[in-house]
Each structure stands twice: as structure tokens, then as C-alpha cells.
């Protein structure tokens, strides 16, 4: 028991350090950018293309803020605008697929995946889903009625306070990471040592096989689905080291999770916007499953081509 605790704690500390080196500087930079004209300039830049997604020009503001910061910041920006139910739903779908891009994509790169692949998948899903929803859904023209949400925010006085708050937020981000990752690693270590992890992976085997992955990716999938991409990356890093998760399975797992992660939290936080959240959850799950199965199928066919060529040479 003591060895399990020690091993799990060490793995948690090491993972926190690995991811913290990414999360702290990016959070710090983005927090500072909030108090410059940069984000407003980016919103102005993409305003002309908003009509393609069925959105008004001002909807560019929550889209930029949500992608640079997180879902909470994007939702706070939505609450400050007068939008239709359809516009709010489209924004919710887009931000579900594509939010907190800098941190979550950098974490994906830290795990060993190509940054451009993650960005292409997330931004591509956001764009395509918005266009489809806009074309398919003819309703939602009434103005959105927002629920009660606190908008209290500390307004810093001068750059010294701004830098102080940025450092505080970055530090709290790493602390939050440690509070989630370290206990999680300890629990996983206990499950491994007790042999329960093998039982769990067998139970999850039909799901992972359906998605084109091996059984040993089950913990990676569950971690990402429940606690999110950034925090779930800790489990992924550990899985690569200890469970011999292949590069292919890791890529497929991440493709699934960029489309559908932290499903409970990311769905519930949209409730105050007054939109139907169950269709939002269904869209994320269906898209994640279909996308992963499609890519896994294509991957298998590509892998099979050299084998057929080798067989023909031998004959």
C-alpha cells in the first residue's frame, strides 16, 4: 500500500511539472492579452465571416474569447450580448469543439501529437458543425433568455495589478492541475496494484474496439471524457510510459477527446444560456464516435497497402 501511494504521488508530481510548464506561461500570456486590444482586433478580423455560420458580427467576440481563454469566459461574453436562441446554440456547439485552444492544444503536443492535427480537427469541427446546424435548423429565431449567472469580476487598477492577477491565475491553474492529477495518479496506481485496472480495461474493451483502439487506451478515454483534455493528458502521458499505448491508439483517443471531453461539466455550464443542452451533448458524442471510427478505418486501410505490396512481391 505504501509503495502504491509513493509511486502514484511521484507520477502525479512529475506529470504536474510536465504540464505545468505549458499551462503556467500560456495562462499568464493570455491573461495579459485580455487587457490589450489584441483580442478585440482578432474579433474584428473574423467578423466578416460570421454570416457563414448564421451568426451576427458581434458573436465573434465570445468566439475569440472562448478559444483564447476557456468556456466560462466565452459564456460570460455571450451573456453580455443580445442574441437569438439559434445563435447562442451555434456558438455553444462551436465552443464545445473549439475552446481553450492554446493550452489544450499545447498539452496535446506535449503528449506527443502533432499540433497542426489537433488544431485542424478542433477548428474544422467547430466550423463544419456551425454551418450544418445553421442550414438544418430553421427555428430558434426568438431572443435568448439567459438564466441567473454572476458576472462579478475584479477590475484591476494599472498594469502592476494586471500582472499580479495574471500570475495569480496562472499559479492557480497549475495548483488546480496538481489537485486533480496527483490524487488521480494515486488512485490509478492502487487500481493497477490491486489488479482492478485489468478488469476495467476488459469491461471497456467493446467501446475501445468499436473506436478502432486497443484495450489499454480505456483509462485515457475515461479520464478525458470525465475531467477534460488538459487534466486527462496526465493520464495519457502515464499511459504512454507504462501501458505501451501505441502512437496510433493515442492519436485516435485524442481525436475522439478533442471532439468530446469533460462531457458532464462542459454540457452543464451551458444551461444558464437557455438552450437545449441534450442535443448539444448528442452532437458532440455522435461526431466524436463517427470521426474516430472513420479515421481508424482509413488508417487500417492505409496500413494494409504495404502488406499487400509485400505479399505480391513474394509471389
UniProtKB/TrEMBL annotation:
Nucleoside transporter/FeoB GTPase Gate domain sequence ranges: 17-99, 174-264
InterPro entries assigned: Gate_dom (IPR011642)
Keywords from the named record: Membrane, Transmembrane, Transmembrane helix
Coiled coil spans: none
Entry keyword Transmembrane: yes
Residue ranges of the TM segments: 12-33, 61-81, 88-109, 115-137, 170-191, 219-240, 252-275, 281-299
One Pfam assignment: Gate
Annotated protein name in UniProt: Nucleoside recognition domain-containing protein
Amino acid at each position: 500500500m505504501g509503495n502504491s501511494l509513493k509511486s502514484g504521488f511521484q507520477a502525479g508530481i512529475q506529470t504536474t511539472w510536465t504540464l505545468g510548464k505549458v499551462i503556467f506561461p500560456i495562462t499568464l500570456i493570455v491573461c495579459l492579452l485580455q487587457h490589450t486590444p489584441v483580442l478585440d482586433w482578432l474579433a474584428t478580423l473574423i467578423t466578416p465571416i460570421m454570416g457563414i455560420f448564421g451568426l451576427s458580427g458581434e458573436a465573434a467576440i465570445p468566439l475569440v474569447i472562448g478559444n483564447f481563454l476557456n468556456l466560462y469566459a466565452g459564456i460570460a461574453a455571450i451573456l453580455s450580448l443580445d442574441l437569438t436562441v439559434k445563435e447562442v446554440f451555434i456558438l455553444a456547439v462551436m465552443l464545445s469543439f473549439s475552446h481553450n485552444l492554446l493550452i489544450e492544444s499545447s498539452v496535446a503536443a506535449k503528449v506527443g501529437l502533432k499540433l497542426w492535427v489537433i488544431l485542424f480537427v478542433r477548428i474544422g469541427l467547430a466550423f463544419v458543425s456551425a454551418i450544418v446546424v445553421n442550414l438544418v435548423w430553421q427555428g430558434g429565431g426568438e431572443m435568448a433568455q439567459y438564466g441567473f449567472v454572476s458576472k462579478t469580476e475584479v477590475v484591476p487598477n494599472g498594469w502592476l495589478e494586471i500582472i499580479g492577477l495574471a500570475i495569480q491565475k496562472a499559479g492557480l491553474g497549475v495548483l488546480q492541475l496538481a489537485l486533480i492529477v496527483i490524487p488521480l495518479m494515486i488512485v490509478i496506481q492502487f487500481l493497477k496494484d490491486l489488479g482492478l485496472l485489468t478488469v476495467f480495461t476488459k469491461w471497456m474493451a467493446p467501446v475501445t474496439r468499436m473506436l478502432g483502439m486497443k484495450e489499454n487506451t480505456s483509462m485515457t478515454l475515461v479520464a478525458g471524457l470525465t475531467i477534460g483534455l488538459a487534466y486527462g493528458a496526465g493520464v495519457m502521458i502515464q499511459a504512454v510510459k507504462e501501458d505501451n499505448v501505441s502512437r496510433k491508439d493515442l492519436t485516435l483517443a485524442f481525436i475522439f477527446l478533442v471532439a468530446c471531453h469533460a462531457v458532464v461539466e462542459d454540457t452543464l455550464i451551458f444551461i444558464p444560456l437557455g438552450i437545449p443542452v441534450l442535443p448539444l451533448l448528442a452532437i458532440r458524442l455522435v461526431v466524436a464516435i463517427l470521426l474516430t471510427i472513420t479515421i481508424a478505418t482509413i488508417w487500417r486501410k492505409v496500413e494494409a497497402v504495404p502488406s499487400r505490396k509485400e505479399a505480391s512481391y513474394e509471389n
